[in-house]
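Researcher: Sequence recovery benchmark, item below. Answer with residues only.
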């Protein structure tokens, strides 16, 4: 078993009872999403509470994390209680498809995304990683229901499914306004896509983030993005 907790500059995340551990995807989304004007934030599938606490560190908004798995939700509550922002962050154990929590001007999700037919033996991990537990359609329907008219939805996805996701979102009148393709190193095809969508049709701002300028050497852009969180920077 790996380390049961991950220490950031201003908080710790215990994740030994969560299916999905602290990883680069969640950190990227929590650091990249624009929350400069956010007042009421929703993190769908909060898991250990990582993204919810990152957002609380970056702004003064009220943050709600929703998690369907009871044990993960309990651990997220414990992580929040140990953080400096326990007064502004709340965790709800609920199925997002039935969740009623008002409207949010900022919604984030690091959603389940594996579509393989071969599942691992750990049912909790399967639920966190596979679209069988929360389809893109169900996720987007929840976002449409919970997002304010002028709100924004941010998500991180594998590059190969991003086009399909954008098409599904457009069918629900959500359109990309910011897109960052994430490459592990220069010259390598993108592995992930960071997207922010809104109800407005606007020119989409597009760029690329390279994580490593060379093997095991982080790029200046990546360091700049995550330096407020990782102890190494």
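Model:
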């Amino acid at each position: 078993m790996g380390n049961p907790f991950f220490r950031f500059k201003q908080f710790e995340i215990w994740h030994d009872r969560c299916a999905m551990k602290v990883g680069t995807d969640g950190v990227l989304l929590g650091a990249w999403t624009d929350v400069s004007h956010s007042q009421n934030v929703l993190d769908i599938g909060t898991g250990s509470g990582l993204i919810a606490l990152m957002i609380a560190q970056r702004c003064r908004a009220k943050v709600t994390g929703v998690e369907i798995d009871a044990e993960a939700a309990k651990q997220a509550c414990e992580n929040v209680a140990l953080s400096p922002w326990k007064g502004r962050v709340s965790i709800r154990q609920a199925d997002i498809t039935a969740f009623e929590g008002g409207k949010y001007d900022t919604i984030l999700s690091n959603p389940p995304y594996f579509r393989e037919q071969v599942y691992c033996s750990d049912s909790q991990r399967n639920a966190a990683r596979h679209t069988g537990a929360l389809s893109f359609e169900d996720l987007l329907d929840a976002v449409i229901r919970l997002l304010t008219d002028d709100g924004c939805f941010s998500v991180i996805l594998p590059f190969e499914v991003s086009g399909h996701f954008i098409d599904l979102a457009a069918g629900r009148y959500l359109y990309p306004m910011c897109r960052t393709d994430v490459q592990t190193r220069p010259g390598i095809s993108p592995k992930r896509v960071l997207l922010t969508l809104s109800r407005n049709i606007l020119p989409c701002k597009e760029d690329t983030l390279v994580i490593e300028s060379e093997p095991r050497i982080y790029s200046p852009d990546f360091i700049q993005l995550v330096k407020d969180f990782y102890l190494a920077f």
